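Problem: given the chain below (272 residues), write out its structure.
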Amino acid sequence: MTEFEVQNPTPAVETFDLVRRFGVFTAVDHLNLRVQRGSFFGFLGPNGAGKSTTIKVLTGLLGPSSGKIRVLGRDLAVETLEVKRRIGVVPEDLNLFERLTGAEMLAFTGRMYGLQKSEIAERAPELLELMELESEPKKLIVEYSHGMKKKLSLACALIHRPEILFLDEPFEGVDAIASRTLKDLLSRLTERGLTVFLTSHVLEIVERLCSDIAIISQGKLLAAGSLDELKKGIPVEGDGERLRPVSLEEYFIHIVGGTRISGEEEVLQWLG
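Solution.
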């Protein structure tokens, strides 16, 4: 247990029978999560599992259909604005104002969080330099590459010093250099006590970065625990008491019921 966790025993995020429906479709189905402060939490699932919907509900972008959410010990339904002041979010669709420069976007975001101009003037250049975005200060965001936009979105999420950072597919469409920059930065931030809540389909990155994992499918929680606990293995066929150590990918496929093609003869026979 880290010093940060000792000082802050209340979990960073807790959900209690969380449900989110869209008409007759249930995207999040009685979800019970517990995310410890200072952890790097990987939230995994196949496409359409309900990951992005869960993040939107946890960050106040969508209201729950039922259930309760506590973020940093606060009831999200009661103290919505206070919670939003203390979290950072990098959504999958980024939501940047593309006719601004990177510095202008950071300044706008800082003011929305109530930062003073002096604080913005100190933090924005440091963030731009950290994200390697300082070389073309007059360049508009519309001219940025996808990876540059991802890094700027992360800078915007960090400028107010959040206690929790929610990241929805931050490595999607990002080149190897930008990905390395983001991974190194996130590792350093969790070492300083920041809680990171990450969704990603890149299981190798999750396995490298995350300390704790939860896996959902069709809106339901299938597994949760520390990465080390989950990787201890899956039951050996014919010997249910013995576990075989596995990679996160193997464990994920086992839990969500994924299948693999058994032989080349079954693959697209019309291709010859």
